Amino acid sequence: MKKSDLKYLIELIDDEQEEVREKVVEELLNYGLSLEADLREYGNLIDDNRRNLLKPILEKTKRTWFRQSWLELSGLKDKQEKIELGMNLISAYQSGKQCLSETTLLLNELAEEFYYAFPYGTEVELAKFLFQRKKFVGNERDYYNPLNSNLYNVLITKKGIPITLCLIYFLVGKRLGLVIEGCNFPGHFLAKTFIDGEMVLIDCYSGGRIIYKSELEDLPDIDFEAAWKIINTEATPEIILRRVLNNLIFSYTKKEDESNAKFFEEILRMPL
Fold first, then answer.
1. Helices (DSSP H) in 96-175: which residue ranges?
2. Residue 198 carries which DSSP code?
3. Is 33 helix (H, G, I), strand (E, B) or coil?
């Protein structure tokens, strides 16, 4: 179907005849994954009634695109590439496909700004840059908002949950050649790096606070041996992305958005 044919489909989507409407819906569902973007060119023809009729069609098309795109992650071997693409897909699902490029652009800009300000900057200096100077913070007031798992939204609002803040730190750091990894801590998500050869944790949700091993040993309500084992276990892209998906499922469920919660439950069962 040609893009120009969309004009006629839009004009017929609210036709009085049910058979005509059904045929239009069928044609739109078969149009392809560029439907949402192409419809923008005919925005002047889409009133509130037509917009409501188009919404379930666009939702189905978007989910088909997301499933197909998510399957591509299983073929990626590079850790940074896999995490970044996975997070970009989630951002695109929630905020539009332009986020695929815009999220990467925003991460590049942060890396460039840090590099020009601190040409020989360390991992600790990057944490201070992001969480003190640039003021990325935890979204305490709206913690369970599904958009907190949207990397593009977090980059724009500078508010997120532990894992998205850590992923910004990780992805910016990788652009700069810094040694930063994730730590899949139960009930929290932290970053790992090194200071003078000693492994430390960075709490991105709490202003980039540095946590030393000795602090963990002194905590009375923690099984240090179990915690240290978790800290030393690699947070693979698969572990990270599945944790993000679980956060989305929980957030959508809490928001009583059953449709999106079930959709991401389906995505969670797909291979990574």
1. 99-117, 123-128, 151-157, 162-175
2. E
3. coil
Please state the separation of Cα 129 from the chain's center in Å.
22
Cα 208 to Cα 224: distance, rounded to the nearest angstrom: 22
Sign, Cα dihedral of 198, 202, 207, 211: negative
Task: Report the C-alpha gap between 44 and 41 in whole angstroms.
Answer: 8
The encoded tokens of residue 112 equal: 């460039």
Six token digits for residue 169: 């730190």
Q: For the segment 53-89, what is each residue's pLDDT rounded down to a tens digit? A: 998 898 999 999 999 999 999 999 999 999 999 999 9
Q: Is 252 exposed, middle or buried (0-12, 13-18, 19+ CB in 10 A)?
A: buried
Terminal alpha carbon distance of the chain: 33
pTM, rounded to two decimals: 0.89
pLDDT for residue 30: 84
Ramachandran bin of 4, using left for φ above 0, alpha for ψ from -120 to 50, beta for the remaining angles: alpha
What CA–CA distance (Å, rounded) separates 32 from 61? 7
Strands 181-183 and 159-160: unpaired
What is the Cα gyration radius of the chain? 22
DSSP letter string over 30-46?
Answer: TS-TTHHHHHGGGGGG-
Distance (Å, rounded) from C-alpha 190 to C-alpha 208?
A: 10
Mean pLDDT for all residues in the chain: 93
Q: Which residues face 137 on adjacent strands?
A: 159
How many residues does this entry show for the chain?
Answer: 272
Does residue 94 contact residue 150 with C-beta atoms inside 8 Å?
A: yes
The pLDDT tens digits for 145-190 are 999 999 999 999 999 999 999 999 999 999 999 999 999 987 889 9
Which residue type, as a one-letter code, is found at position 195? Answer: I
Q: What is the DSSP letter of 161?
A: -
